[in-house]
Amino acid sequence: MWKQNAVARFFKCINIQLRQASAGTGVEGGQLPGGGKSSFIVPAVTPDQANELSAEFMPGCEAASTVWSPVDRRRYILIKLVLVALPLLPLSMLLAIAVSWKFVLVLPLGLALAGLVFNRCWSKLGYGVNGDYGFVRQGFIGTVTTIFPMFKVQRVDIRQTPIQHRKGLAHLTIHLASHSLKVPYVSMRDASLFRDLALYQAESSEQPWY
């Protein structure tokens, strides 16, 4: 996993976190007592060093050449804006009636600010497959990029609402031994291809799982 927060982004460096597969989980998905450390961190490496170390830990991984696929921008931002508008609308109306009419501006200003935040999050969100490895990227100012061998994917969930079915979109959830990754509003075609590829890799790979 590559982690780059605001400070790391400023200094153009990356923190690499190696996550350990767990045999089970405790309450609410937490680590079992006595499980020990579940991750190992290599801090403050350059992008070139991150690529080299990733290839060392995961033979054949070419993270730098990954082609990222975006999620559906319109649906991703629109749904989130609706969720923000639901509490803002009655609040702005209540304040406008009780205090001043100027509070009607709370809703458009709040939605404009939220739109900028969600657009930034959308621009950082992406997924891809390069060789035998899958990639999922998320973030706001910095990014968190998870890299995983496809043959180690334990389960892939594809969920569609009726509206998503009509639009050809789906929510993709990738279950790994250490944690799960959720990618919303991907094309149904990409979700199906990812599921089939993970299944093929799991059945055909002769690499040791551990």
Question: Can you walk me through this structure?
Answer:
The protein is built from six helices and nine strands. It is an alpha+beta fold. It has two domains: 2-71 and 125-204, Roll (PH-domain like), CATH 2.30.29; 74-120, no CATH class. A hairpin with a 4-residue loop joins strand 8 and strand 9. Helix 3 packs antiparallel against helix 4 (106-124). The radius of gyration is 20 Å and the shape is globular.
The CATH class label of the largest domain is Mainly Beta
The chain-level mean pLDDT equals 87
The strand line-up of the biggest sheet is 3-2-1-6-5-4
CATH architecture of the largest domain: Roll
Our Rg estimate from Cα atoms comes to 20 Å
* Structural class by secondary-structure content: alpha+beta
Q: What fraction of the residues are assigned to beta strands by DSSP? A: 25-35%
Tags for this entry?
PH-domain like; 210 residues; six-stranded antiparallel sheet; alpha+beta; 6 helices; 40% helix
